[in-house]
Structures
1.
Amino acid sequence: MDSGQVPEDGNATSPIWVSDRPAEDRPTSRPTPPASTYAPVERASLRSLLDHPKYRHLRRRALIAVGVGVLAGILLSSWRLGVTAAVAAAIVDTVLRARSNSTVPAWRRASVAERRTEAQLKRLERSGYRTLHARAIPDSEAQIDHLVVGPTGVYAVDSEKWDKRLPVRVQSHRKLFHGPFNQKPRLDEARWEASQAAELIGGALGHQVTIVPSLAIYGPAIPWKILNVREVDVFDGSRVRKWITKRERSLTDAEIGRIYEAAERVLPARYPEP
């Protein structure tokens, strides 16, 4: 039974207040804390790290180094030379891997042809031309490698790297061949991409926009300067700038800006930045 006394501070739960209840009425121990709901953390071992796909190349490199080191040590009867050979093997493997791999995924890297065209188009910026690279056609797998908007008009440029050992020829301005291979599907695709882009941009602006499709070919010799095949201009990739700038001026700076902004909206980047 309690004595009825109350601490002077009025707080019956004060940590300095001692009750005079019998010992058997008091709790004999504190309640057991609830079991932890967290799973135990497993320590990472060297073996588990090496088995991880991210570090698998390190295991391969270590095996190569050990194998070369042991073999060199036995053949040369010197453990020092074996260690030297192992280090050299690891270095060689590192260099070869660095040359054959990139931190940028393969599907995001521009082809050699695209990079060469992009370098040429960059030099047109000071003349008022603006370019969008790798723009997707919505609801399809197609893309326009380079969409150029400038004083002389709007152009869709697809960059192609073909085998230089095979000749390029044309029949009746309707058939394009690379060696024995008919390039009609590629021409039709380039024309369709340009027409889709023109429809989307024109719809965004409220008026018709004309986009000239083209194939810029790198590799084999092209026996003409510029040739229109199935409504697509075909030429050597080194002529991209001349093909664009040798036309008459048809757009003002304001029109260029509006077309470029509309194209940027309706033609999404194929590989958007994260």
Note: The longest helix spans residues 79-100.
2.
Amino acid sequence: MIVPPRRPAARIHAALARFFRPTRILCLLAGVLVLAACAPVSLPVRSSFADPDPILAENSDLLAEQNLPGSERYQVTPPRELPGPLPGRVPLAPPGRPGNLRLPGLAEAPPRATDIPEFPTLDDLEVEARLERLAKLPPSLGLDLVRTGLTQKGRRYRRAGTSPVTGFDCSGFTQWTFRQHGLSLPRTAQEQYNTGIRIGTSELRAGDLVFYKINRRGRWHVGIYMDDDVFVHSPRPGRGISEANMKDGYWAKRYLGARRYTR
């Protein structure tokens, strides 16, 4: 039997089939790998709220001295969902110009970078010496307020913050500290200044509030007086709760006065 020779088109088709067969296999494998890489993977999410609070851990001794109820000592309830948008229109900086996003409804006006220089702080050894001197004084509400405030030492500043969960601004820090001892303070530093009992500088004692006017735009600041011209406060964005000296030149020329709150 004589087999007729293959036509050129048939030979070309057979050659192409042999060439593209491994190519199709490689394309199929590549498609499988791409699908596997893009498929969602359910990984366990570690909640940051489950981690121990480093501030509370560092200041646990001071916190234990307060004998506060558990409901007041650990008011750290993680939010279930993010809050919705704030009411009103949010003004943005003009296009092409640098600027900060300003949110409406905040308790205190957000400061500009030039408003608040780097606040002077005290040396740790100096602070420790003052704390040892305070520990030798008779127990009082003022000392308890100071110790409660120091349990949050190192907690970062947060604009409009009022709890250890979010962080504190200056008046949110004083409001939270006093609330732990059954004292209700207004929200802003100016309101706290207007409603407290007026006292002179020579009458200052532990637990009193000292007030400052930071800039010409009327930004207020408040801290809790400790002892020997030293107060503890939540100073500014990027800084944690710390101590400062009232006699420092920066604070001395901005001092407004002091107020006392009692039961």
Note: The longest strand covers residues 220-227.
3.
Amino acid sequence: MQLDMNLLTALDALLEEGSVAGAAARLHVTAPAMSRSLGRIRKATGDQILVRTGRSMVPTTRALAMRAQVHALVQQAHHLLSAQQELDLPALDRVFTLRWHDALTAACGTALITAVHRQAPGVRLRLTAEPGTDDAELRRGEVDLESSSSPPALPDIRHRLVGSDHLVVAVRPGHPLTEGPLGIERYAAAEHLTVSRRGSLRDPIDDALTTRGLERRVVAAGPTAAFALQLALGSDLVVTVPDAVTRAARHRLGLTTLALPLPLPEVPLYLLWHQRYDDDRAHTWLRDLAAETAQALFTPPTASRQPLTNRTGQ
């Protein structure tokens, strides 16, 4: 049976007002239109709903039994379809999937999880590995929020610039590169480690060196920044990483940070999501909280800044 859902609103008004004229005035329709709605309701339910007693109308036994349920259904429908729903964070029960770069997750994942749990204890976060750009997962709704170093190419993928990072060089304490100024030739002559989930032994640094007639020797590729930093700690390998998102990890490992003797553009950090979530208040809350948490990486307290050792030599 096909039932016009508008009949529920009409039925609710009829049961609340107890008259066709009152229900018509409540819904801002004419009395004849409301009478037609009552006729359709009687046909759909097989019940008179309202019956005349003298000069007034009274609800039938069935109408009285369904009145509370009808009113609840109408209220739920209005709440569901309302564009101005209030976000009740303490009652929010939802799972969000975040696909972020491993260094970003390591740098602010704990702070984000803590903030989310404090504000919305019913929300759970699924932090997945970053396998590379796959806008299809965003479009299918399998990923709610993604990190990226470039804006999306597709018009239905939204983006928000969180901050910009610059590259630094990380080496073990006492590494030969820490002795004297670090020039571009000394940097290129060292043995390097790249960070690449796909195992690539080349990145934009190599292209920049090539334009200057230089070539570095990359002897290994690590899948994550955490792995690469740990490897650099136990060897003479040099790893070049974004400063802000690896600052805490470098400090924790006791690595020495050097300025990169190669002018390169800063690395932007974007958060990406599908346009279906533009007006989703819970998603808006999450991405605002995620952006705020990530932005804290780019504006650390002055006292916590780790000075660069041996800045670029001329």
Note: The two ends are 83 Å apart (CA to CA).
